[in-house]
Write a structure and sequence with these properties.
This protein is of the alpha/beta class. The chain contains 13 helices and ten strands. It is 40% helix and 14% strand. The chain has an eight-stranded parallel beta barrel, surrounded by five helices. The protein has a two-stranded antiparallel sheet with strand order 1-2. Helix 3 (66-74) packs across helix 4 and helix 9 packs antiparallel against helix 12 (309-319).
Length: 344
Amino acid sequence: MEYRHLGASGLRVPALSFGAGTFGGSGPLFGAWGNTDAGEARRLVDICLEAGVNLFDTADVYSAGASEEVLGQAIRGRRDGVLISTKTALPMGEGPQDWGTSRARLIRATEDALRRLGTDYIDLLQLHAFDASTPVEEVLSTLDLLVASGKIRYTGVSNFSGWELMKSLAAAERLGYPRYVAHQVYYSLAGRDYEWELMPLGADQGVGALVWSPLAWGRLTGKIRRGEPLPKASRLHETAQYGPPVDEAKLYDIVEVLDAIAAETGRTVPQIAINWLLGRPTVSSVIIGARNEEQLRQNLGAVGWSLSKEQIERLDAVSAVTAPYPYFPYRRQEGFARLNPPIV
């Protein structure tokens, strides 16, 4: 397993990390993802650790805390050998203090996560969404307190826009608070919006990407083909409404190129899609999920080899879309290209 620095921090994380969204799954979304119990979770953790995957990502909102509880049980007795990433901010109840990132909510959410995980510290705490109702100075001062107390080691965000992240980084710089080192983002061959603003921002500010849904919400598994009905077993029947939008015409074009490269390399479609992401700028780790051992072992096969330059160019070309304003105009002009070398 390759290990990379998480953004500009000193924390080294595996190129692949494991998403525990299937642990303890319940409800219309997480129940469709999977319902891995503690025994099954421990076996999946065993396989991950054998492969060098020691970063496990979860969130308090995943099955109302059950994912954190099952993950805590699965890593019991080997806490020092793993990294735990969890997230908070999304609603956990109907009360006024059950959502957001106010000082009261962050402190309580951290304490609740520590209890569910059965640990006394969290390696990476990420804000699951930007809370526009709480001043960033309040958020950052609270995170600083939690870092100073030893309850969290590093901080990051998830699903922030460019201005939300930059505003927070600027305030942290001005006030001397810990800077966010990670941004958990949606990024895939079928969804490259991350590249327009968030990738250049991450490169400039030292914020590493933790990629969620690298297979485009299950659409790049190799089971979805042009002109064929959605497989009966696909979780998209229940979860498509929760996921990122996808251009279906372009999706089929991408899948056909993935199929061709799979035939050339002897690799699977998911392995190729994940491997392509691992070569992209600012990507620190790609989060893989699995409902069973077979899926996990297949996804772990995405590392240890490389696509050829020509294969990467084909994937780049078939998945490319025109950047929206204001990102497209000057990239086509030589002078601006020299002054602002593209990173994608």
